[in-house]
């Protein structure tokens, strides 16, 4: 058995799902370290995009072992199928394989509750436990990181209210996303590159869908694919994480090609206030004329059920699809760990971004608990990152451009 290693202090940069999962793993150790989370967003809560999440095996395992929420967290889709352009189910595409679908906001609130005690409607009536809590701070922009020798790692950041601050910890975990500041400071050669298309995303209350739409969307993971077009959708928990039938949301994701550097892409990613967003055009930011044009386009190119769902979505948002992967998961002689999207940004076709965060946290728990060595931890995390990242590129290039990345 490998030697147990429990640090005394850990700073986690990034307070979204990956950061919270790693914090909870640390807080669940027999002798937990002091955990401090530095989140860049100036608001106390990260903005809820209303996004759906496929709850894969790793995510389900993490929530069962570490979060122990005392409630179901996902809607089950017993089957998946494809529609043709007329909206008819293609019989040969029907696959009876159950998958679980949840929402980013439900996972986030459950994690915040366990990690630092945040109360919300999502956790009303759920049982608390006696694990220690992390120190969670928002409005923290990291500006520098340096090796402090035997003391660990010194991190410097600017706080939105208190100016420049610094602290030293045994380890720093970079869970600050695909545009990770920690990765940029320590491994600046790793680039985040635009892949040539975006994901339009939105949700519609299931009760607002017509009978024809509900017939193909309810209890189904539903796809439509045409050259340069793919749209998929599934039911997710509704307001405050409810799973009650009639109160759930239909979540859709529509991939559309926009060439880099074009006026079309610039117009798409420019919000109602004239600000050009590089990666995400958030909920509520889209210009009315852009949304109207896309809804009209949906009627031309999508099956009628999907055109209906897009048309009934009041505030969709857009994510530019990008690629990034670091050459290694540890930096500064192993004192700094890259996890989740900071290590490798998966294309959403893999439905594995949240799963990567969960896998990384679960594997860290095995290492710190003495079940595997540090070398095995590094190997497993990098293997998962490289394998799924490459698979996502293959899926996206084939879906959107009809090509395989290995042969162009």
Characterise this structure.
It contains 10 helices and 20 strands. It has helices at 17-27, 57-67, 104-116, 181-186, 211-217, 263-268, 288-301, 304-311, 353-368, 374-401, and strands at 9-13, 34-39, 52-54, 75-77, 79-82, 99-103, 135-138, 140-147, 153-159, 163-169, 171-174, 193-205, 220-226, 229-236, 249-257, 280-281, 317-325, 330-331, 336-338, 344-345. Strands 5, 12, 13, 14, 15, 16, 17 and 20 form an 8-stranded mixed sheet that branches. Strands 7-2-1-11-19-18 form a 6-stranded mixed sheet. Strands 3-6-4 form a 3-stranded antiparallel sheet. Helix 5 (211-217) crosses helix 8 (304-311). The model has no long low-confidence stretch (mean pLDDT 95). It holds the Pfam family FAD_binding-like. This is 2,6-dihydroxypyridine 3-monooxygenase substrate binding domain-containing protein. InterPro entries: DHP_3-monooxygenase, DhpH_subs-bd, FAD/NAD-bd_sf. Residues 194-323 form the 2,6-dihydroxypyridine 3-monooxygenase substrate binding domain.
Quick overview of this protein structure:
With 408 residues, the chain is α+β, with helices and mostly antiparallel strands.
